[in-house]
Amino acid sequence: MLAIQVSELRFVTEEGVGVFDGLSLSVPREGFVWVVGPPGSGKTLLLRILLREVRPQGGQILLLGRNIRRISAKSFRAVRRRVGYLPEEPPLLRERTVLGHLLFKLRALGLRGEEAQDALHRALDLAELKEIAERKAAELSPLEQKRLGLALALFPNAALLLCDDPLRGLDPRDQERLLGTLERIHRGGVTLLGTAREEALLRAAGFAPGGAKRALIYLREPVRP
Q: How many domains in the chain?
């Protein structure tokens, strides 16, 4: 079963730049897949299309079994609650603690009771933040800030996690550590699709072109008029 299936995706900018022309890719429910490409190749755009923030000119997109180009806004909101998103720069409040960020989202979603507490502990555990839950965002290292962004993306019950260039801006050692956190999240039952500019670390970790569950997918540079 597939978590993501993109078929014949086509996107042309208002300036006539052809970013996607028949792009097809799939991510199985048990998958951990990276989309690799240079700046401007459409990595962030692809994630925004999957989140239905940008409308493509053509193609079919199935997300957790639903055709997101055809379903209603209400139906998509139900799908979206199962999809976590980590932007390149997580939107954190400097004076709010790790736990405070998660509790704020808990209140915003109107979640209460045992289910809410279970979701809270799951996010802290998978993102490796239990030991620093009371620290303010301003006190966190770049790696810890990324992990807090992951916890927020996972919360409350994401089955699919989209990560926009999560390794960028970290030193090589912290890149390896964050990749380890992502592996932990994947082992926790979450499908992952990430973007990256470089592939060396990913290849060393066992990701490969043409792989089924641990794959690298390459994007080319856009075609300009």
A: 2
Domain ends where: 158, 178, 209? 158
Range of the domain at 216: 1-82+161-225
**3-state secondary structure (DSSP) of residue 170:** coil
- Three-point CA angle 55, 44, 203, nearest 5°: 135
| Calpha distance 20→7 (Å, rounded) | 11
Task: Determine the 3-state secondary structure of 96 from DSSP.
Answer: coil
Residues 94 and 75 grouped into a single domain: no
Q: In terms of domains, do 29 and 134 share one?
A: no
pTM (2 d.p.): 0.94
Number of H-type helices and E-type strands within the chain: 7, 10
Per-residue pLDDT band at 221 (split at 50, 70, 90): low
Q: What is the DSSP string of 113-150?
A: HHHHHHHHHHHHHHTT-GGGTTSBGGGS-HHHHHHHHH
Beta bridge partners of 196: 36
